[in-house]
Every structure is written in structure tokens, then in C-alpha cells.
Design goal:
The chain is of the alpha/beta class. It contains 11 helices and 7 strands.
């Protein structure tokens, strides 16, 4: 039985929200409740996946894929496949998971400020491939190699359903620009709106508009007329913890051509006067 509205609102106010979340962590609750309260090892992944699945249902699409660029040790990919299973059971939308990585750590940088050679080093974050593969489920595929080549291969030969969520954690400006191929390739397949998570957009002294992921986003928007990336506006509204850092990392990719071509088949919405004094 759901709580009365006033109790539900009270549970989200400080200090009650901390007690509520602590209680919810030990209770069997729905995927949607976990998403609202940020109860996940990767709450940004759960947020993106659940909304991606809901968007797919609204657009009449039965199956989507979720991508993680920058797998490193694999904790994120394991979390992504676990949440994909939970969201699939909740929504009925099938979800395939793909992880992209070199496997041997970060590649050579641009050797200038754009890739922050003062912060990242080639070879950072190598992968134990054998151990990681032993933990992957049937829904998850690991794609190793330089991202510039593997994104092309993915779109042209592997992908068989629209993209519904992407996490970008490649650290470097240069690698992130290559990963954006999945959103700009002539054969791309994506929902009209795709939730995105960018891991490196809020780090102090590193995240700014002239380097890294933020520069890659700005340049992508300048070059591409049919797909645009913007911050996820309104994502903090109605949340018990709107100040959580992961919410500032959430963006959306908009397929403007697909949005322009959409035609709604439903009755006109109405705003009745009933209930007014």
C-alpha cells in the first residue's frame, strides 16, 4: 500500500530523508523506488537505463542496447549488466549491454591541454580481461580495441537495436570524440532521446569547457546538425537528494531528425475545469 501524499513528501525532507533511505536500503523495494532514492552502486546508470527503457516503450521499441565507454577494471560494466537485468524485469524492454575499452589502459594523449597530460597518463587503468570475462552474463559483450575503430565496427556490423543509454568514462577528450561516432554515424540507431552519463564533467581543476569531455560535447554539437547533446534539464526535480553529484553528470542526446518526423496518434489532451472553486 502506498503512503499518503503528505507522508511521502515528509519522508523526502531533511532529516527524515536520511532515515528513509537507510530503511529502504534494507527493504525489498521496486526498481523505480531504488532509482528515485539513488540506491545503486551506480545510480547514474540506473537512472539512465530506466528512463531509456521507458522512452523505448513510449516509442514502441521492444529492445535497446546500453553502452559503456571506458570499462577499465570492470566494476561499472558489472553494475550496468546487473541494473539492465533489473530494469528489463521492471519494464519488459529487453536490454543488451556492450563495454568498450582498449584493455591495456589509456592510449597516447594529444600531448596538449585537451587530453590533460597533467592528470591522465597512457597506460592508466589496464584491464584483467580474463577475470572480467568470467563475470559477464549472456546479455553483455566486451569489445576491445581502439575506440575509433570499434565504434565503426559496432554500428556497421554488431548493433541490431537502438541505443537507449550510454556511459562515457574514457577520460580523454580525443577518445570521447571517437566514441561519439555511435551518435553521428550515417547508420546510427538510437532512441529519439538517449540518456547519457559523463563521468568526468565535474572534477575540480580538470573539468572545463576547453578540454576533456566538455570540449568534446561542445565540438560535437558544433559539427552535427541532426543530433545534439544537452544537460538533462529537470532531472533533479522531485528528488529527495537533488544535490547528489551524479545528477550533474546526466545529459541527453536528441535525434532532431527523428523528433521532427514523429507524429502522435492519440486523442487531444484536455485540461478540465472540474474541481475548481
Amino acid at each position: 500500500m502506498s503512503l499518503p501524499l503528505w507522508r511521502n513528501r515528509l519522508s523526502m525532507e531533511p532529516p527524515f530523508r536520511f532515515l528513509t533511505r537507510a530503511l529502504l536500503k534494507i527493504l525489498p523495494i521496486s526498481v523505480r523506488a531504488r532509482e528515485l532514492w539513488g540506491i545503486s552502486s551506480r545510480p547514474g546508470y540506473l537512472l539512465g537505463l530506466l528512463n531509456g527503457a521507458d522512452l523505448a516503450r513510449y516509442q514502441g521499441i521492444p529492445e535497446i542496447c546500453a553502452l559503456e565507454f571506458g570499462v577499465a577494471g570492470g566494476q561499472g560494466l558489472i553494475a550496468l549488466q546487473a541494473e539492465a537485468e533489473a530494469v528489463e524485469q521492471e519494464t519488459g524492454v529487453r536490454i543488451k549491454v556492450y563495454g568498450f575499452d582498449r584493455g591495456t589502459g589509456l592510449p597516447d594523449t594529444t600531448n596538449d591541454y585537451r587530453d590533460h597530460p597533467d592528470y591522465w597518463k597512457p597506460g592508466d587503468f589496464p584491464m584483467d580481461e580474463h577475470l572480467l570475462r568470467s563475470k559477464l552474463q549472456h546479455r553483455t559483450q566486451l569489445i576491445l580495441g581502439d575506440v575509433e575503430a570499434t565504434t565503426q565496427q559496432f554500428v556497421e556490423h554488431i548493433q541490431d537495436c537502438p541505443i537507449g543509454f550510454i556511459s562515457f568514462d574514457l577520460d580523454l577528450y580525443s577518445s570521447t570524440t571517437h566514441a561519439f561516432t555511435v551518435l553521428s554515424h550515417p547508420k546510427k540507431r538510437m532512441l529519439r532521446q538517449v540518456p547519457l552519463y559523463f563521468d568526468d564533467v565535474v572534477e575540480s581543476f580538470v573539468s572545463h569547457r576547453f578540454a576533456g569531455e566538455l570540449l568534446a560535447i561542445d565540438e560535437f554539437n558544433e559539427r552535427n546538425q541532426t543530433v545534439k547533446i544537452d544537460q538533462w534539464r529537470g532531472v533533479k526535480c522531485g528528488r529527495p537528494f537533488p544535490g547528489e553529484a551524479y545528477l550533474d553528470k546526466m545529459y541527453i542526446a536528441y535525434d532532431l531528425d527523428a523528433i521532427s518526423s514523429a507524429r502522435l496518434e492519440r486523442e487531444a489532451r484536455r485540461l478540465p475545469l472540474e474541481g475548481l472553486l
